[in-house]
Design brief:
The complex is a heterodimer of chains A (96) and B (400).
Chain A (H helix, E strand, L loop, with lengths): L13 E2 L9 H5 L5 E4 L2 E4 L10 H5 L5 E2 L7 H10 L13
Antiparallel strand pairs in A: 1-4, 2-3
Chain B lengths: L62 E7 L2 E6 L5 H11 L12 E5 L8 E4 L3 H9 L6 E5 L7 H7 L4 H10 L2 H4 L4 E5 L8 H8 L2 E5 L6 H6 L6 H4 L5 H5 L2 H6 L5 H13 E2 L2 E2 L1 H28 L9 H20 L5 H21 L9 H29 L3
Parallel strand pairs in B: 4-5, 6-7
Antiparallel strand pairs in B: 1-2, 3-5, 8-9
Helix pairs in contact in B: 4-6, 11-12, 12-13, 12-14, 13-14, 14-15
Classes of the chains: A alpha+beta (96), B mainly alpha (400).
């Protein structure tokens, strides 16, 4: 994915290294190689590679990772502007 | 049709003899020779109904037999795709009835699955199901299909229909505990967005192992003792992977065709004589051609050439393809239109192209929602201004 880089400095990803147990779940589930385990601690090695899918946070056993997950879809984001984040729905017939 | 059906007691050996008791199972096939002798009229009768047919049910073409397990009969599925599967794939790739292309959730098997065989979990989008089974030839495995409402693994995980609760409920509903003697599920890595491995373990006793992203890597993954290398864990977005998305992107635009035609002809008919039918026709075709060009550069060229077009924001990529191809198209029109009209058409193409390219963010595997929202806040005003100016310029150009 080196050829594909999106906007930098936008991700809401956050890792609290203090509580990390180095279990390696985040490194396994991340589809973009954002994390790497070094010396029994996870570290963010490619922050701008993050697409905020939320897999890491969902599978961190100690909740060391936070990210505001969502769908990077223009149609969905327009809905959140009009209807608000709670009522916006991803999906419908013409969606991914 | 394989008949792997159980004959559990002697009286059932001769299937024409009625069996008195529970030695019969529900799946006992009934064979009856076709009536012999001369056919009185017409061609000979077709084949007898499949022994597995049941009143009110439809036999799926991808099922080749059934397996008996302590938790009931489990369909054994083919690993080769057949013509109806391929036609179905083409249809959904064109965006036709995509949301109703499903298989029934539940437990399936491939090859000669035993209680020791692994359990692969997947979505009930038939395209996903087909992709998985076609890469599992020669593998003996169970396939647990979740009810993801006919949505693929990653999108379903994002929508939370491929979820922790769905995994737990489906494991219990299929009584998987009675079918296998191990307690391990192999989930596609991309479902991790919707599934917490830890909570699945807590909820149904099965440990989650994250399988590879691609179905084609499942076989090597199993062979390597449930180990995936780095390449199997990272998503790709190759030219072919982008190409296959284009028809669906275009199919989203079907609902706008009427409005584009209406706007094209109505706006183009406005001129010195208030409204002219001949003007509407002549200029309308040009304006509609510009709209089609904008759609082409934004929804086809930009996605295809994605990594090679400069810029990070998709809207910017759409502007670049729109300017280049739009200018070329306007050149082709030559001197038949004036400068104001040329400027208006290029702006129209660029506006449409930029918006559609921006929309493609929803189909890529690497754009973050924070990034998309940021670019939309900046770009949508520009796109709106471009299209408004284009329409004003196009109407104005008819007056001199």
């Amino acid at each position: 994915m080196e050829k594909f880089r999106y906007l930098t400095g936008v991700t809401t990803l956050n890792l609290n290294v203090g509580v990390c147990t180095g279990c390696g779940s985040c490194e396994i589930v991340c589809p973009h190689g954002v994390f790497e385990i070094k010396a029994h601690k996870a570290g963010i090695v490619d922050r701008d590679g993050c697409m905020e899918c939320g897999a890491c946070a969902t599978n961190c056993p100690v909740d060391a990772i936070t990210v505001d997950p969502g769908v990077g879809c223009a149609a969905y984001i327009i809905q959140t502007w009009i209807k608000g984040k709670e009522t916006a729905s991803c999906g419908g017939v013409d969606c991914c | 049709m394989s008949t792997e059906t159980q004959h559990s007691s002697a009286c059932c050996e001769s299937v024409n003899t009625p069996c008195a008791n529970g030695g019969l199972t529900e799946m006992l096939p009934v064979y009856r020779e076709a009536p012999g002798g001369e056919a009185c009229c017409g061609p000979p009768p077709g084949p007898a109904s499949s022994p597995f047919e049941k009143p009110g049910y439809h036999m799926c073409g991808f099922v080749e037999g059934f397996k008996t397990t302590p938790a009931g009969t489990v369909p054994r599925i083919k690993t080769k795709l057949e013509t109806p599967d391929i036609l179905g794939t083409i249809k959904v790739r064109l965006g036709i009835n995509r949301s109703q292309y499903t298989v029934a959730p539940g437990l399936y098997s491939i090859g000669d699955a035993t209680p020791e065989s692994p359990v692969l979990v997947t979505a009930n989008y038939k395209l996903t199901f087909d992709t998985l089974r076609k890469d599992l030839e020669g593998v003996h495995t169970w396939v647990l299909v979740l009810d993801t409402r006919g949505v693929n693994v990653w999108c379903a995980a994002g929508k939370k229909t491929f979820s922790t609760d769905e995994v737990i409920q489906r494991v219990n509903q299929t009584r998987l505990h009675e079918v296998v003697n191990h307690r391990r599920l192999i989930l596609p890595q991309l479902s991790a967005t919707g599934v917490s491995g830890k909570k699945v373990k807590k909820g149904c006793g099965f440990k989650v192992t994250w399988g590879p992203i691609q179905a084609r890597d499942v076989k090597p993954f199993l062979k390597a003792g449930l180990k995936a290398d780095k390449a199997m864990r990272h998503v790709t977005f190759t030219f072919m992977e982008r190409l296959i998305l284009v028809p669906v992107e275009l199919s989203f635009l079907r609902k706008y065709i009427f409005w584009i035609l209406l706007a094209g002809f109505v706006l183009s008919g406005i001129g010195p004589g208030l409204f002219s039918i001949s003007l509407a026709w002549d200029r309308g075709l040009i304006m509609i051609a510009a709209c089609v060009t904008g759609i082409f550069t934004g929804a086809v060229v930009a996605p295809m050439l994605l990594p090679w077009i400069p810029g990070r924001a998709f809207a910017v990529k759409g502007v670049l393809t729109g300017v280049l191809i739009g200018a070329a198209m306007v050149m082709l029109l030559g001197k038949s239109i004036n400068f104001a009209a040329i400027a208006a058409l290029v702006l129209l193409i660029v506006g449409i192209s930029s918006y559609l390219a921006m929309n493609f963010t929803g189909s890529t595997p690497y754009t973050s929602p924070s990034g998309v929202e940021k670019e939309m806040r900046i770009d949508i005003p520009f796109q709106a201004v471009a299209i408004t100016l284009a329409i004003a310029g196009w109407i104005g150009s008819a007056f001199y």
